[in-house]
Amino acid sequence: MTVMLPFTVFVAIFTSIWPFVHGTGPIVAVTVLYGASTGAFAALFSGPMMAMGTAEDVGRRTGMYFTIMASALAGPPISGAIQDATGSYRPVGIYAGTMVLASVACLAASRWFVLGGSFKGKV
């Protein structure tokens, strides 16, 4: 989680700013930075579930984790409704970035509780 939290914050930032970026150069820059940040998240997202308990319980924790992550399937219809209602992608980017920041808050809270009320230590 030490690497995952900051990279997920970067994902939230790049998700929020993409509708405000214009021109080929800036769009390529945001795309590359977003891709690098998302790559770090995608490579690490199942790691914390493996470390938060005994080896006998990994299957149950991982299954619950992926079930909760499946709720992200509601994002595209909500984003489409926002775009239809406003006629702009700017509110969609703000909504998506805010949802990623909410996930960062959940990650930080889980780290806090696993480490017994501290952010210092290894999860």
How far the N terminus sits from the C terminus, by CA atoms, comes to 7 Å
**Number of beta-strand segments:** 0
Largest sheet: none
Provide the succession of SSEs: HHHHHH
Low-confidence stretches: none
Give me the Rg, rounded.
16 Å
Enumerate how many helices there are, as a single number.
6
User: What value does the average pLDDT take?
Assistant: 87
Structural class: mainly alpha
Written overview of the protein:
This protein has helices at 4-17, 24-44, 47-51, 58-69, 75-86, 90-114. It has six helices and no strands. Helix 1 packs antiparallel against helix 2, helix 1 (4-17) packs antiparallel against helix 6 (90-114) and helix 5 (75-86) packs antiparallel against helix 6 (90-114). The chain is 72% helix and 0% strand. The radius of gyration is 16 Å and the shape is globular. The chain has 123 residues and is an all-alpha fold.
Strand and helix layout:
Elements: H1 4-17, H2 24-44, H3 47-51, H4 58-69, H5 75-86, H6 90-114
Helix pairs in contact: 1-2, 1-6, 5-6
Give a brief outline of the structure.
By secondary structure, this protein is mostly helical.
Feature tags:
6 helices; mainly alpha
